[in-house]
Design brief:
five-stranded parallel sheet; 5 strands; 42% helix; alpha/beta; 9% strand
């Protein structure tokens, strides 16, 4: 009898503590929803998207997608596409799992979007550092209890969960979410360095874990289901790559082709071999201002209008660009 009474008291005490903790977290959840920052000055998604908003286009991806909105390029992008755009890409190597989380939260806030463009990098299908081990994609996002719950349900490590809890104490959102490298998109890659590209190949291979493709590729199906449930079309766009025979690309290509064949609201465009001119880039991975404008006009706009074929690698005609002195030559490898 005493043992039973002790068990009941222990359980009641535990439930009481859990209820108190939940109440505290609920109190802090969403307390920064009235903070609004312009996408020109922040890397945050939550502080830009708002609630009950409608967009023509949403962009998912890594920093190679985020760069489309940096340094004032977002307004150029919207002007070229003729649509209101929300950019949910994340710098710091945001992968499939972070993309699903941000898109899910976007919808949960009552927002809607006609067409999602997922700008794909192959490595996010193979590396834990881009998925559950990513320690960057929530560093500039305010605390939301629903996001914390998703982190727990999706099996994110405890240190990622604890680091997100630390966002409760942040009050300088303009400072903490500010892009750290303003002006990079104004540069131009001086030369395509084969040695650096080979170094990058090894960098990615070192981070590719056995069985990771089978682990992360089903997230594509979950994202597609999420888009369908909320009435959105989605097109996966394999971004141009200066590195030939990028590790893992054939597997990703097959997965996305199959997804497009099996979903009426899903499409796939492969641009891996397009835009090989170094003058479209500020390093070996990221578009510069000229590249962003050209990509938006000649790739994204046709895709949105339904004029782009499903597989058009190398099919984009390259313009002659004037030479410009200066520019960056960094490798630009993503974590």
């Amino acid at each position: 009898m005493q043992a039973k009474r002790f068990f009941i008291k222990t359980a009641a005490f535990g439930l009481l503590n859990a209820a108190i903790l939940a109440a505290v977290l609920l109190f802090f959840s969403g307390r920064n929803r009235d903070v609004r920052l312009d996408i020109d000055v922040t890397e945050s998604n939550l502080l830009v998207m708002g609630e009950n908003q409608h967009y023509g286009v949403a962009i998912l991806g890594t920093s190679r997608g985020r760069v489309l909105s940096r340094d004032g390029n977002h307004r150029v992008l919207e002007a070229i596409l003729g649509e209101r755009v929300v950019n949910l890409s994340k710098g710091g190597g945001g992968g499939l799992m972070p993309a699903e989380l941000h898109l899910s939260h976007f919808y949960s806030r009552g927002n809607t979007v006609d067409h999602i463009l997922y700008l794909v990098d192959p490595w996010v299908f193979f590396s834990a550092i881009n998925n559950e081990n990513n320690d960057f994609f929530l560093r500039d996002e305010p605390f939301e209890l629903s996001i914390l719950w998703n982190l727990i349900l999706e099996g994110y490590p405890q240190d990622r969960i604890f680091s997100y809890l630390q966002m409760i104490a942040v009050d300088d959102w303009a400072g903490i979410s500010r892009y750290a490298g303003p002006g990079l998109t104004e540069g131009r890659l001086k030369t395509i360095d084969g040695a650096k590209l080979e170094e990058a190949r090894q960098h990615y291979l070192d981070r590719y874990g056995e069985g990771n493709f089978e682990r992360y590729s089903p997230v594509v199906d979950r994202i597609n289901a999420l888009a369908k449930k909320n009435g959105s079309r989605i097109t996966y766009v394999m971004l141009p790559l200066l590195m030939r025979d990028f590790p893992g690309l054939p597997e990703v290509d097959r997965k996305l082709r199959a997804a497009a064949e099996n979903g009426e609201h899903v499409a796939y465009v492969n641009l891996e071999s397009a835009m090989q001119d170094r003058r479209f880039y500020y390093d070996h991975m990221h578009f510069n201002t000229a590249g962003i404008a050209w990509f938006a006009k000649n790739a994204l706009r046709p895709i949105l209008s339904g004029k782009a074929p499903h597989h058009m690698a190398g099919a984009l005609a390259m313009p002659e660009l004037p030479e410009k002195p200066g520019g960056a030559g960094a490798l630009g490898v993503l974590p």
